[in-house]
Structures
1.
Amino acid sequence: MTDASFETSSELPAPVPPAPVPLLAPREGVPPVVADPRALAETVAAFAAGAGPVAVDAERASGYRYGQRAYLIQLRRAGAGSALVDPAACPDLSELGAAIVDAEWVLHAASQDLPCLAEVGMVPRRIFDTELAGRLAAFPRVGLGAMVESVLGFSLEKGHSAVDWSTRPLPEPWLRYAALDVEVLIELRNELEDILGEQGKLDWALQEFAAIAAAPPPSPRVDPWRRTSGLHRVRRRRQLAIVRSLWLARDAIARHKDVSPGRVIPDTAIVEAALAGPVSVAALLALPGFTGRDSRRQAGVWLAAIEEARALPEVELPMSTLPHEGPPPARAWTDKDPAAAERLTAAKTAVAAIADEHTLPTENLLAPDYVRRLAWAPPTVPTSDAVGDVLRVFGARPWQIALTAPALSGAFLRLAAHAANGTSTA
């Protein structure tokens, strides 16, 4: 065989991976929805008698209903099969939670589902988050469908992910979709555990999972109205007061009607009204976003909210920005504290290099907020131990500290030495 034949063979195309196998129906069929005390008691007994991890998922009605409560909860466990539980009909699921509390709960994007599960009395002690596992294992796409396809070779139908799960009765295709979401979740968990183990990242993942399970409920947002989309267009404090007043009026209506606030009036309507400051119903209804029948019916409410904000004394107007703890925005560091700006650049470079070395997203290696806070106010003598102590107070896990503290310490000490010698690090 000639050298040329070797070159030709080396250029052969890579084998095409097999097409994913569609998952069309659960193995045992679509289970009946658990919607009464007797069915719930049977489900509790079945899952208590099951073995191994429990796959758990929840469906909300985001964009349709007020809040983020669950309208369907799916579970699967060896020996118990799958269950679909209606938390609207069975609002207290604490007995079900207690029946599986000693098991590991397998969720995908756990931080999204844990709050609504806690609302119905289901709180895990241990979890395995397949989305976070995928991030740590450096998968380019970590949605459930993409992970199931790339790891297990199955394709999931995702056409019902954004439907109104408060609909009753739930259509059979939706229930089939929901049951399939937990059908292979435990198999996915097992494969990801092996992958993380081969990469030397399993202990890192377990620390992350433990931190999620132990995290307290999130604190209520300060001034949630400031999350109004398009608020950056509103510059004057009086206009901000109108945004706040309209947001609060909309929120009260949405809560009373149990609908998503955006279905009452959109954020764009609030911003347009704040900028225009209409003084009559006709002027208000001429603005974008106030064309819907319901929003027009509430025109008096919106105008009253605007007038209330317009009548506020100057001292009661909201500030242009919220006072915040910690460092100022990074874009201001060069002017406020050039040395801190240098530390931030060095810290980001160090973290990025470590993340690249271990094939990790930088934000999973160390939260950007921790990096900013550390660079703004480092220890007086930034030894590795001192840096590690600061990161631990922020909430960094031991594996993150072990990987990053020595490099961050070295970067800060080098900058300090250059500053003491009067030399540049450029």
2.
Amino acid sequence: MTTHGGLTPVFCTIVPPHVLDRLARHEDPALSGPARRSLEHDAYQRTKRRLTTVVGAPAVAAPAGTAADQPHRTVYDAGHTQDLPGNRVRTEGSDPGSDATVNRAYAGLGATFDLYLKAYGRHSIDDHGLPLDATVHFGEGYDNAFWNGEQMVFGDGDNEIFLDFTIPVDVIGHELTHGVTQHTANLTYFGQPGALNESLSDVFGSLIKQYTLGQTAADADWLIGAGLLAPRVSGTALRSMKAPGTAYDDDVLGKDPQPATMEDYVRTSRDNGGVHINSGIPNHAFYLAATALGGYAWEKAGRIWYDVLTGGRLKKDAHFSDFATLTVKAARERYGAGDELQAVQKAWEEVGVRTL
């Protein structure tokens, strides 16, 4: 990839910083230690990302002879260091090895590529066959996964609060979708534009899971990160699109702070203006639209959201109402004044976001 042409890659993690902040203050060093180290890793990577944005990153292209309709995946092993990308351990077309983490990362990259290609005709993250690189076993007990503007990185978790971050395929899809947003609307990572950035990653992360499992909107659990929380945690996932604010309620993690409607919109200076918190509102709107339409959510609701993300009319500083208005226009343009339009309009109305 390159930072030329207006792209502004950002450092995006699946676990919000407010969650790690809380863990870092815990009196039990088995919980606070990994969280503190994870926050230090994140701070370093965030600074590195900012410097790369200033000086420019080298362009990355698929190797000669690589078909645009086929993924080009490479998985690396950091060996519990912070050195990226690490040692190459699996390449495109090679057989699975004995490391389940490597195999899950490889499969998740492929699942993401497949959804974007087969549902929307998109050729990888940048629509030009961008190679999909991932590093596993990053850091020591690292409690996060992230997209750094160029590749995916996965921690192993601390096995106290978080398990291996390659377990939920929607986490992989979520982070790679930050790359799609980077190469399309390039939404500013702060406030409502940042919450839209996070929501789009949740939406398509969930669709990637649903596509992989062959689930309809009615069958899906609409959870982000199911299977990531360790058994001791009172919770089911990091976030719920069906019922924001209910994903966890735990003595250590606290209660899921996501609102479902604008009535409970959270105004905060933390987490880049609450990007991981207020994303619950557009998340819930998508859930309402998708379940109202029924069938496979990637076919109609997902198509409308994808049209808006990639259509060129979504501004970098778009607010919820701007995005909602564009989904209404996209629904009308693609499907006319039918059920699709009504479902989208009603979804935004239910979460309290105005459309113009």
